[in-house]
Amino acid sequence: MDTVIRRLGAATLLAALVGALAAPWLAPDVGEQQFRDYLYAPPMRVRVVDADGHWHAPFVHRWRLADRVMRSFDEDRSERYPLRWFVDGRLVGLDSAAGQPLLLLGGDGLGRDLLSRLLLGARTTLGVAFLAAIGAVLIGVLVGGVAGYAGGIVDETLMRFADLVLVLPTIYAVLALRAVLPPVLSVGAVFWLLVGLLALVGWPYVARGVRAIVAAERGREYTLAAIAVGAGPIRILAIHLLPATRGFLTAQATLLLPAFILAEATLSYVGLGFAPPAASWGAMLSEASNISAIADFPWLLSPAAAIIAVVLAVNLASGAGARGGAFGALARSRRATPRGAA
User: 269-307, pLDDT tens digit by residue?
Assistant: First the structure.
């Protein structure tokens, strides 16, 4: 059962990654293009049988605005609009002659294709989270490896600095750092800014574990033998000590990734991350929060569903057993650490 759950999580995570990487090809429409007649339009129904019971290739009907004030739509079944595959560099869409978008997930408050924005937003949100997690792991490995190998005053200084970062409330620290910067930045600048901020607040969690493992492994026979034959510190760390941290690093990465996804969504939601018209899951939720009757347009909450699905998929794919084994190795390393080294 655990294997099935883990494979389900891995498949979901893989689908999210593929969707993010192939978003420009998978998106039926341009994410920023507005269709004024389709504000808050519900998802279109893909059909293969028309009103007369005849079978056709997959098609949709046009939404007709029934009440502009109530934002209600009726399906115009007088015409069929067949789906077109592999046209204009996209997987699926409608002919340009149709003059309407393919709203498989509905439209937002500006009449933009919500599915296209959700896919493009995945590139932004997941890109920030993945790169920030990689950055936090690399910084943590560097700092923790040096501290664990050098010991003494170097170890004490680096670990006290890590403790200082750890005691800060993470999300408030990121909010404060972002708030002191210019509020209006380009999308690219915001992207790399968030990557850097999240990596800077995430590395101490990695560094402390790496330091404990390296400090323990430094006293083992194979490390002492490498020192005896004249191996340098860099070679000892890279070849002999840091490979022992792989299980711990995998576990930490699976913990940091969901946290950074939620952090990006939070920052964009409160207006300190990506701003419209840039597509990110947090910015899309911020736009949806301005709707008083959100229950009438539940498809606007699809970014929240995507965040929940990806976070859950990461936890399922990683598996409690893998995390337990990694932290078990860390615990054994700590027990093996000499009193003076701790």
Answer: 887 788 877 889 998 888 888 776 677 788 989 999 999
Q: Contacts by 234-240 with C-beta closer than 8 Å and gap 24+?
A: 236/149, 237/145, 237/146, 237/149
With beta carbons less than 8 A apart as the criterion, state whether 128 and 198 touch: yes
CA atoms within 13 A on the CB side of 74: 6
**SS3 for 74?**
strand
* Closest by Cα among 341, 150, 137, 130 to 245: 137
Question: Tokens at residue 283, please?
Answer: 């910015």
Cα–Cα distance, 255 to 106 (Å, whole number): 33
In the chain, % helix, strand, coil (3-state, to 5) comes to 65, 10, 25
For the chain, domain boundaries: 35-111, 115-336
Can the peptide bond before residue 24 be classed as cis, meaning omega within 30 degrees of 0?
A: no
pTM over 0.85: no
- DSSP three-state, residue 104: coil
What confidence tens digit (pLDDT) does each residue in 117-176 have?
999 999 999 999 999 999 999 999 999 999 988 888 998 999 999 988 888 776 677 777
How far apart (Å, rounded) are the C-alpha atoms in residues 203 and 253?
Answer: 11
User: Which residue has tokens 């007649």?
Assistant: 37
- Average pLDDT score over residue span 174-196: 80
Provide the CATH topology of domain 115-336: MetI-like fold (1.10.3720)
List the Cα angle 71/298/14 in 5-degree steps: 135
DSSP labels, 175-209: HHHHHTS-S---HHHHHHHHHHHHHHHHHHHHHHH
3-state secondary structure of 113: strand
Alpha carbon 91 to its chain centroid, in Å, reads 23
Q: How far is CA 85 from the centre of its chain?
A: 29
Q: What is the dihedral of CA 23, 18, 304, 138, to 10 degrees?
A: -110
